[in-house]
Amino acid sequence: MNIGKSKLVAIIAGFISVIICILYLLLVTVLDFRSLLNEQIISLSENMAVVFFEIGYLH
User: Fold this and answer.
1) How far apart are CA 32 and CA 36, in angstroms?
2) Residue 23, SS3?
3) 7, 31, 34, 58 — which has fewest CB within 10 A?
4) Sequence ranges of the domains in the chain
């Protein structure tokens, strides 16, 4: 099987572009999940309430 030099370069460039594409999709997925997580944390703080209870002695 005789592959020309230009064909070999095209195949290698294709593999490199697929690897870059997969890495880009993984990066976008991680960053998107992080923003979703930040929104969940922010929305949790909006629904929280604080209750103070004080026991004191009357003199």
Assistant:
1) 6
2) helix
3) 58
4) 1-44
